[in-house]
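Task 17 of the worksheet. Students: predict the tertiary structure of the chain below and write it out as structure tokens. Keep your answer in the requested format; marks are given for formatting as well as content.
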Amino acid sequence: GLFAHGSLEIGFVARLVLLTLAFTTISLTLLRRVVDKAMTFIHNRMGENSGLKVTFIMVVGAIFGAITLNIGIHSLFGFFIAGTILGEANHITEKDRFVVNRLVYSVFVPIFFANIGLHLDFIANFDWFLVLVISAIGIGARYLAAYIGSKWSGQDKSNLSIIAISHTPGGQMHIVIAMLAYSSGLISEKVLVSIIAAAIISTIVFGPWLSQTVRKLKRSIFDIVFAEEDVYIDAESSTRDEMLHYMSSIVARKTKFNRDSIYHEIKLREDQMSTAMGRSIAIPHARLENIDKSYVFAFHTRQGLEWDSPDGNLVRLIVLVITPKDSPNAQLQILQSLAGAMQDHKKARNMVTNRDRRFLWASLRSELNACQQCNVES
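Model answer:
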């Protein structure tokens, strides 16, 4: 890059900037369309579950990284641009993202951090004072920025501290940026070591800090309506959208709300990110205005539905959660209770395979009752 060149030459700097801008512009315009068409071609020829898509993603990332490295900037910038393009490409499913994520964290991330360890002398360059200063600045800045952003976006006042604390841990991106700065000669090895140590410290203090803050919150009791009649076995739908319409009708009948409005809210959340969590389970959810209670519904399908699940499995059990718009904590508590149970392989398998209404109702009700802030009504 700039500092690896050895001297600050105007011609070299101009060339570096122009090539970087040209590469970024071409990538985000022309190459974006090329990648999108290539992904569509692979999807049409090979099908939804082809491993060729994942291979194509990795190849594109490697090519972009090689291009930026040849330009004179770090290859990580090329991977970043590739990720931006591929993330918005057609036919990229949650399963594809899950596979790529596992591959990156299983192979490339360990190699990246091992490379850092081989090239840095942590003991010789460790400075407690610098570590504490960077930790304080990093944690404080991230907390303040998240707090202000949450307040401006209209988040509930009781959630501001929790949201802000959740953004305080340093992570891989901080270390990656620091490595880029170090490789360009912008920071010293001592500063890099301090940034890495600060990222680790912020991650360590995050858990106890968040736990202590949550304990101090004023606990509200959330009323949840979930009766045995709210469990529907062998719900007949052939697609996810049909199921969303069907569920919206059920909710409308129960709450006396407009079906189309309910469908819009549920669909809006699904469009943002699939609510399928794997193991043939999905937990769609929405927040509605002018309701004072939360509602839970369960739907068991005879034939599984395609729901863009991260593990690629068809969804057979759908648990729909409807909560008041002005009570974000209600949704959080209910989803936390349900998601915790669904992560238990044995519990999840029993609920997915058992088609007895009372069993499913009792199982889900038991998980909801475990929530200390939930008052479950029949």
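Marker's comment: The mean pLDDT is 85. Strands lie at 222-225, 231-233, 276-278, 281-282, 285-288, 294-305, 315-324, 374-377.
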